[in-house]
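User:
Note these C-alpha cells:
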Amino acid sequence: MTEPMRPHERLVYSPITERPPLKLPGNARLAVWTIANLEVWDISRPMPRTVLTPPMGLPQLPDVPNWSWHEYGMRVGVWRFFELFRELGVRPTAAINGTLCERYPQIVATAKADGWEFIPHGYEQRPMQTVADQPASIKRALDVIEAATGTRPIGWLAPGMSQTFETPDFLAELGIKYTGDYVHDDEPSFVKTTGGDLVTVPYTFDMNDITMMSLQNHEGKHFYERGVDQFTQLYKESAKRAKIMPIPIHAYLSGQPHRFVYLDKLYRYLAAQPGVVFMTGAEIHDWFVGESPAAGKRKTSRAVPMPRGRVRRAERAGLPRPSGGARPPRR
C-alpha cells in the first residue's frame, strides 16, 4: 500500500525571497480576506470551545451554558457582522458546517443575498480525524451547501484546520480547488495531492479571534491594535510584492458587543487605506492561478497511486475509481 504524502512532501519549500513578486489587480497592494466561521454545536457532544468551566472541574453533558454562549453568536453576533460588512461593501467567505444550512437557514439566506462566498467547514463541527468516511462527509457538505446556495463551493476550511495525511487527496478528488488549512506563508502556494494541486490561500492564527480572545484571553481592544500592527508591516512590504491579510472571526467571539466595537474600528481603518482591497477566497484563488507563472505547469502533481482503503471510501462517496492520480471532472 502506498503511504500518503506528508506535509513537507506536499508543500515544496519556497523562500519568499526566491519568488517573483505577485501583483494584485488594479494596482492594489494588499488584499484582506475575511473568513466568518459559522458553526453548529451539537449539544450531545463536548463543546468545541468553553468560556465557563464546569462546577468542581468535572465536565458534564449536556453542556448547556457553553452551548448557549455559542448560540448568542448565531442569534445576535452574526447580524452585527452582516450590518458592518454590508455598509463597507465587504463580502466575506463564510466557512460553514453543512448542517448550518438546515439549522440556521436565515443566516445562509442573508449571507447569500449579501454576496458572501460559501465554503465547507466540514459537514459537522468535529475534527476530521474523527470522521469515519471522509470522502462521503466532504461530498455531503458540498452537496448540502450547493443545494442551499445554488453554487458549488471551490474552497475548504476544516474544523480546527484538522486533517489526516489523506485529507488533501480527498479534497482534490471531490473538486475542491483551494484550502485554508495552512498558515505557512503570506502568499498563496500549491499543495500536491494525488488528484492534482490544490491552492493554499493564506490563513492565520495570529489574527484569529479564537487565538487572541479564547486562548490568550486578550481584551477586545487588542484585536484592533494587533490588526493595525499586522497591517502596517504587511503594507510596508506590499510596496514590492502583493500581500494577503486573512482575518478569521467567529460570531460568538467577535460578535460580542465589547469586542465588536474593535472589529468595527479595525475594518473602518482598513477600508480607509489606499491600495487595500477586500477579496473572497475564491477571488484570491482565481487571481493567484492567473498570476502565478508556475500555474500552467502545475495542473497535476506527480501520479501517486491511491491506497486501496481510500479507493473504497472514494467509491462509496460516489466518485469514479481513481487511477494514476487522475482527477475526476470538477463541477
